[in-house]
Design a protein that fits this description.
about 240 residues, 2 domains, two-stranded antiparallel sheet, 10 helices
Length: about 240
């Protein structure tokens, strides 16, 4: 039982991870649906927490717990986040080595620092664009090269030993490179749009994997560039 609790805590990132996740979801909901009232936004936040698959208790049990909060029209974001932390971290997972005053203070400070007004706009820089362009360039060249070699293999009347092992006449290496190229392009597009940070990161990994097929030097240069750009560019994604 202890092992399961520790595993769940790692998934949720401890109480701080829960707090930051809820604030992020609240900001996103406020930006996507500015017409919703504060009470409706907070209810959506609670319901999304109940519906998530990575929850520490049964859905019916969680709904019973949060029902009074859902029916309270005067609740605040702090009330909602504190209720989630107290229930999931302290009550269900049984964490006892955290000071409640410390948790309360962290929630208040996080809300003050991270909750954005409806007209908030992140300052845009060239870095996500650079990441997107790099991914699209790498992905495009990789995909074109893959298509060329796959076409050569399919159109050749006899097997070409240089193309390596094949599946239904398609070289495995070039098939994998083509998939990496597609993933790199998709990641680059999302980086240009500044949406879905995780997809943009996966695109970078796929670009690195594709460049690794051409030589370690290209992979190293790309990794250094992305490593410099990524941390500061993350702030502009939502």
């Amino acid at each position: 039982m202890v092992a399961i609790k520790d595993f769940l805590l790692k998934i949720f990132g401890g109480y701080k991870g829960v707090v930051l996740t809820q604030i992020s979801l609240y900001n996103k909901a406020k930006r996507v649906a500015p017409e919703l009232s504060e009470d409706d936004l907070l209810n959506e936040l609670i319901i999304s927490r109940i519906k998530t698959r990575l929850r520490p208790a049964a859905r019916e049990q969680e709904y019973i717990h949060y029902e009074p909060l859902l029916e309270n029209p005067h609740k605040t974001l702090e009330d909602v986040i504190r209720a989630i932390v107290e229930y999931e971290v302290f009550e269900v997972l049984g964490v006892r080595n955290v000071d409640e005053l410390e948790v309360k203070s962290y929630i208040e400070e996080s809300i003050e620092k991270k909750v954005k007004s409806p007209d908030f706009k992140a300052k845009k820089t060239w870095k996500p664009v650079a990441i997107g362009v790099l991914n699209i360039i790498v992905g495009s060249f990789t995909l074109m090269g893959s298509i060329m070699y796959i076409s050569q293999s399919l159109l050749s009347p006899i097997p070409i030993p240089e193309l390596g092992r094949t599946i239904a006449g398609i070289p495995i290496y070039d098939l994998v490179m083509g998939l990496l190229g597609i993933a790199s392009i998709i990641g680059g597009i999302f980086a240009l749009k500044r949406t879905h940070w995780a997809v943009a990161v996966i695109g970078c990994f796929c670009s690195a994997g594709a460049l690794g097929g051409f030589g370690w030097y290209y992979l190293l240069v790309f990794a250094v560039l992305v490593g410099i750009l990524m941390p500061s560019a993350k702030r502009e994604f939502f």
